[in-house]
């Protein structure tokens, strides 16, 4: 069951729906929501946000199978559906498929086709896909997280921020009034999500950044005027690693020549 509210988009209003209860399996809930849109909503393409390549490819397969079953059961009321994955490691030619037109009706008077783009969060801000009217947002993304104490960087599935949720909803209002289906409760949106996504410099291994600053002649890395200052411990771990790799000498000077 979904509740709804309205938020203004940059060009058209977007109606936002929330679930009444938390979803135990956000991928299954997302697939179910896409198929509900295909059966019941007006023509318009769908943008579904998931967290990574494996999850996206698996969801695309399941959506296509379920959509084909719907067409076989009721070909007069359900149009054809094409499901297109989008993630950074896809070859450029395959990434360009997101701009293809939706499939044509199976018969001249048949129901129109629909395109479903299943994407990581690269579709939040970096591109606009014409024809998107519906957004399905499970509320998660993969983020790099670095633990300086054990010196391990991981990709973790984490809740998105309110700012990211608003960006995702805004994808639905580019060409005409749209709808965003958030697969979490309004209470969780208001009370559990952070206001902004933590800047990458605060949660990633800084070895490359530190090396570039040293090569530029920056000596006092702790007091450098960062937009968002990282923890001194993270900087020290980066210096230790660069020294161990012989990229810096014992005085913190670069052993790598400027290009």
TrEMBL record:
GO CC annotation: spliceosomal complex
Molecular function GO labels: ATP binding; hydrolase activity; RNA binding; RNA helicase activity
Keywords: ATP-binding, Helicase, Hydrolase, mRNA processing, mRNA splicing, Nucleotide-binding
Gene Ontology biological process: mRNA processing; RNA splicing
Stored SMART domains: HELICc (SM00490)
Residue ranges occupied by any Helicase C-terminal domain in the UniProt entry: 30-217
EC number(s) on file: 3.6.4.13
Catalytic activity: ATP + H2O = ADP + phosphate + H(+)
Enzyme class: hydrolase
Matches recorded under SUPFAM superfamilies: P-loop containing nucleoside triphosphate hydrolases
PROSITE patterns: HELICASE_CTER
CDD domains the record matches: SF2_C_RHA (cd18791)
PANTHER family reported in the protein's UniProt record: ATP-DEPENDENT RNA HELICASE (PTHR18934), ATP-DEPENDENT RNA HELICASE DHX15 HOMOLOG (PTHR18934:SF109)
Name under which the protein is recorded: RNA helicase
Organism: Dendrothele bispora (strain CBS 962.96)
């Amino acid at each position: 069951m979904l509740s709804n509210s309205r938020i203004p988009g940059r060009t058209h209003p977007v109606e936002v729906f929330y679930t009444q209860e938390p979803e135990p399996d956000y991928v299954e809930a997302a697939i179910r929501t896409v198929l509900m849109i295909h059966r019941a909503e007006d023509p318009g393409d769908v943008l579904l946000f998931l967290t990574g390549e494996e999850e996206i490819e698996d969801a695309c397969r399941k959506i296509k199978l379920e959509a084909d079953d719907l067409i076989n059961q009721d070909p007069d009321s359900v149009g054809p559906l094409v499901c297109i994955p989008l993630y950074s490691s896809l070859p450029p030619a395959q990434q360009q498929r997101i701009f293809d037109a939706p499939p044509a009706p199976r018969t001249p008077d048949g129901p129109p086709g629909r395109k479903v783009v299943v994407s990581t969060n690269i579709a939040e801000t970096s591109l606009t896909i014409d024809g998107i009217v519906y957004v399905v947002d499970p509320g998660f993304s993969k983020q790099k997280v670095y633990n300086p104490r054990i010196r391990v960087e991981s990709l973790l599935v984490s809740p998105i921020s309110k700012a990211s949720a608003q960006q995702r909803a805004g994808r639905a209002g580019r060409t005409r009034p749209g709808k965003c289906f958030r697969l979490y409760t309004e209470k969780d949106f208001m009370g559990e999500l952070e206001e902004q996504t933590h800047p990458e410099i605060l949660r990633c291994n800084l070895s490359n950044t530190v090396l570039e600053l040293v090569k530029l002649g920056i000596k006092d890395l702790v007091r450098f005027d960062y937009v968002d200052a990282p923890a001194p411990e993270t900087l020290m771990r980066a210096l230790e690693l660069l020294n161990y790799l012989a990229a810096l000498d014992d005085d913190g000077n670069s052993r790598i020549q400027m290009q």
